[in-house]
Design goal:
CATH class of the domain at 32-44 and 81-220 in chain A: Alpha Beta
Order of helices and strands of chain A: EEEHEEHEHHHEHEHEE
Distance between the termini of chain A: 25 Å
Strand order of the largest sheet of chain A: 6-7-8-3-9-10
Order of helices and strands of chain B: HHEEHEEHEEHEEEHEEHEHHHHH
Oligomer: heterodimer
Structural class of chain B: alpha+beta
Number of strands of chain B: 12
Largest interface: A-B, 31 and 28 residues
Number of domains of chain B: 2
CATH topology of the domain at 32-44 and 81-220 in chain A: Rossmann fold
Strand content of chain B: 15-25%
Largest sheet of chain A: 6 strands, mixed
C-alpha cells in the first residue's frame, strides 16, 4: 500500500495569463481528513478540480494512489475518477427526473453494474430509506445533500472530495451532513473538504490555507 | 450491457425525452415537415418520370436501321431483324417492325404498298389516329390499313374490298380494309399490309428496306447504341432518331435537376433547423451532461444518448412524414401534372438515407459541444 494516497508535485495551473496554482506541493495520507480553506480566488476550486481529475495541471505531477494522472486524457481521467473518487458538490447536482435511489444508481451505472440492494443499503446508511422513490424536488436541501453523499459512497471510493458540502444547508442539516463525514473519517475514509467555515475545517486532521495559488499556512490538529 | 444497466439506460433516455418534450417535439416536427416535402418530391419525381417514360415509349420509333449502302431496291435481308433483337436484347426493345416499300396496282390506280409487321407497327405508331382497327395478326394476309388521302381519292371506307396487284399483274391479293389512318404524313397515301404479303406482291421475298425500332434508351445512350450496332453488324447503318429520344432525355434531365435542387434546398434548411434544435437540447442538458461525466460517463456514453434521441426524432418524423408526403405528392401531381401519383417504394429507403445524412450533419456541432463541455466549469455554475 502507498504511504500517500495522493501527491501533488510542483503543480502549476494557468488560465491564460492568470496563474491559479503555482509550484504547488501537497500530500495526503490514506485515512486523512484535510480541510482546504482560503478566500475566493485563492485557488481552492482549481485545486479540487485537479484532485478530482476534472482538470489537468499546466505542469507538474499528480500521483493518485501511485499513478501519475497529470498527463491522462479525458477518458483516462474519467475512468480513474469513477474508480478512486467520490464527489460531493455544494449544489448537490442531482438529476431532477431521477428518484433518490436512481440518482445513487447512476454513479454505480457508470462504474460497473447497478445493484439496487447495495444502493438501498447506502441510502439506509444516510437515513433516507423512506425517501428512496422521491424526486430531488420532493427532498429538503439536507436530504438532497445526504443523497449526494450516498452517491459518492456507492462505489466505495478511496477518496471523498467535497466542495463546500454544507454551504447550502441550514444548521440542523449541516450538523447531520457533518456527522456523516466524521463517521466516514472514523471508518478510515480519506476526505478532502473545501470549506469557508473554520468550525467545519477544524473537524479534519489538518487545514491548509491557500492564498494566490499557494499554501500560506498549515494547521495540524 | 447488463439487464439492470440496460433498464437504467432506457430510463435515462425516457426521462430525458420527457424532460424536454417540447424541444423533442420541435425536432420531430422539423423532420416531419422535411420528410413530407422531400418524400413527396421523390415520389413525384419517380412517378412522373415513369409515367413520362411510358408515355414517350409509345411516341414513335427512336431508332432507324437500314443498309449501309443506299439503294432504291431493298438490300437488307429480313434476317437482320433477328440479328438486331439478338444484339440489343429483346427486353430493351419495345417494338421492332420491318419496312418494305414498292409500287402496287390497285383497281383505280397505283399506290405505295408498305409491308410491316402489324402487331409491332401498331406499338410503334400507336399515337396515329385510326378509324376502324389495326390488323392484329402478323400472318393476316386478307386485311390492310390505308391512308386517309388514298381512301378519300379512291372513295374507300372501312370494310370495303380492295385488290392489290403486282406491277405485272401476275400476282394479286383481295383484301378488306380494316382501318384508315390519318397521320398528316406520307403514310396517308399508302397501303399497309403484313410483310410476307408485300414481299409476294412486290416479288421481293426475304427482303426489307429498313427497320424501325423503339428501344428503351434515353439521351446519349441512343447514340452509343447506334455506334455499337454499326460495329457489331457491319453492313447496317443505325441512327438514333434524336427528335424523340433526345427530347425525352432532356425532359428527364431537367426534371432530375429541378427535383435535386428543391430537395437539396429543403435538406439544407432542415439540417439548420435540426441543428439549432439539437444545440438547444445540448445547452439545456449541459449540467446533466457535466454531472454524468463527473460521475464517470465517458464521451461514448453521452454519444449513445444523443444517438438514441436523434434516431427516435428522425424515426418518428419519418414515419409520420412519409404518408403525409404521399398525400402532398397527390396534391402536387394533380395540380401540376394533372395526374394522381402512385406510391413508389423506393421513396422509403431514399428518404431514410437523406434523413440519416441530415441527422448526422445536424448532430455534429451539438455533439462536439457536449464532448468539449468543461465539466468543472459547468458544475460550478449557479
Amino acid at each position: 500500500m502507498n504511504e500517500l494516497i495522493l501527491e501533488l508535485k510542483s503543480i502549476k495551473r494557468c488560465f491564460g495569463k492568470i496563474t491559479a496554482l503555482d509550484d504547488f506541493h501537497f500530500n495526503v495520507k490514506p485515512g486523512e481528513w484535510v480541510s482546504i480553506m482560503g478566500p475566493s480566488g485563492s485557488g481552492k476550486t482549481t485545486l479540487l478540480n485537479i484532485l478530482a481529475c476534472l482538470d489537468t495541471p499546466t505542469s507538474g505531477d499528480y500521483l493518485l494512489d501511485g499513478i501519475n494522472v497529470a498527463s491522462f486524457n479525458e477518458d483516462q481521467r474519467t475512468v480513474i475518477r469513477r474508480e478512486k473518487i467520490g464527489l460531493v458538490f455544494q449544489q448537490f447536482h442531482l438529476i431532477p427526473y431521477l428518484t433518490a435511489l436512481e440518482n445513487i444508481l447512476l454513479a454505480q451505472y457508470y462504474h460497473s453494474v447497478i445493484d439496487e440492494d447495495e444502493a438501498m443499503a447506502v441510502l439506509v446508511r444516510v437515513g433516507l430509506e423512506h425517501r428512496a422513490t422521491h424526486l430531488p424536488s420532493q427532498l429538503s436541501g439536507g436530504e438532497q445533500q445526504r443523497v449526494c453523499v450516498a452517491r459518492a459512497l456507492i462505489n466505495q471510493p478511496a477518496i471523498i472530495l467535497a466542495d463546500e458540502p454544507t454551504g447550502n444547508l441550514d444548521e440542523e442539516n449541516e450538523a447531520i451532513v457533518l456527522k456523516f463525514f466524521k463517521d466516514l473519517h472514523q471508518q478510515g475514509k480519506t476526505i478532502i473538504l473545501v470549506t469557508h467555515n473554520p468550525e467545519i475545517g477544524q473537524e479534519g486532521d489538518r487545514i491548509i490555507y491557500l492564498h494566490h495559488g499557494k499554501i500560506v499556512e498549515k494547521v495540524y490538529f | 450491457m447488463n439487464h439492470m444497466n440496460f433498464k437504467m439506460f432506457l430510463r435515462l433516455i425516457r426521462q430525458g425525452i420527457r424532460n424536454q418534450r417540447n424541444r423533442i417535439a420541435v425536432g420531430v416536427f422539423c423532420v416531419f415537415i422535411g420528410v413530407t416535402v422531400v418524400s413527396s418530391l421523390i415520389n413525384l419525381y419517380y412517378d412522373i418520370s415513369y409515367k413520362m417514360h411510358e408515355e414517350l415509349k409509345s411516341h414513335g420509333a427512336n431508332f432507324f436501321v437500314g443498309s449501309k449502302t443506299y439503294s432504291v431496291s431493298p438490300t437488307l435481308d429480313q434476317s437482320v431483324l433477328d440479328l438486331l433483337i439478338k444484339t440489343i436484347t429483346r427486353e430493351k426493345i419495345v417494338a421492332i417492325s420491318p419496312f418494305l416499300y414498292g409500287i402496287a396496282r390497285l383497281d383505280l390506280g397505283n399506290a405505295v404498298l408498305v409491308g410491316v409487321d402489324f402487331p409491332e407497327f401498331k406499338k410503334l405508331e400507336r399515337h396515329w389516329p385510326i378509324v376502324g382497327q389495326w390488323v392484329s395478326m402478323s400472318f393476316d394476309d386478307r386485311h390492310c390499313v390505308v391512308g386517309r388521302t388514298l381512301a378519300n381519292t379512291m372513295h374507300l371506307k372501312v370494310g370495303d374490298s380492295l385488290t392489290v396487284y403486282s406491277q405485272d399483274l401476275n400476282t394479286h391479293a383481295p383484301l378488306t380494309i380494316k382501318g384508315i389512318i390519318e397521320t398528316g404524313e406520307s403514310a396517308d397515301e399508302q397501303v399497309f399490309v403484313n410483310l410476307p404479303l408485300a414481299q409476294r406482291i412486290l416479288g421481293l421475298e426475304g427482303k426489307v428496306h429498313h427497320a424501325m425500332l423503339r428501344v428503351e434508351v434515353t439521351g446519349t445512350e441512343a447514340e452509343h447504341l447506334a455506334r455499337f450496332l454499326e460495329k457489331t453488324i457491319p453492313f447496317i447503318k443505325a441512327d438514333a432518331l434524336k427528335r424523340v429520344s433526345y427530347s425525352e432525355g432532356k425532359i428527364l434531365e431537367s426534371m432530375t435537376g429541378l427535383m435535386t435542387l428543391m430537395v437539396s434546398t429543403i435538406v439544407v434548411l432542415m439540417t439548420l433547423v435540426l441543428m439549432t434544435t439539437l444545440t438547444a437540447m445540448t445547452a439545456f442538458r449541459r449540467k446533466e451532461i457535466a454531472l454524468m461525466k463527473a460521475l464517470g460517463a465517458k464521451n461514448r456514453s453521452i454519444l449513445s444518448y444523443f444517438t438514441v434521441e436523434i434516431i427516435l426524432i428522425v424515426l418518428v418524423g419519418t414515419i409520420l412524414g412519409i404518408p403525409a408526403g404521399f398525400i402532398l405528392a397527390q396534391i402536387f401531381g394533380k395540380t401540376i401534372f394533372l395526374s394522381f401519383v402512385s406510391f413508389r417504394l423506393i421513396v422509403i429507403p431514399f428518404t431514410l438515407a437523406i434523413m440519416s445524412g441530415t441527422a448526422v450533419l445536424a448532430a455534429i456541432i451539438p455533439i462536439r459541444r457536449a464532448y468539449r463541455l468543461d465539466t468543472a466549469l459547468v458544475l460550478k455554475e449557479e
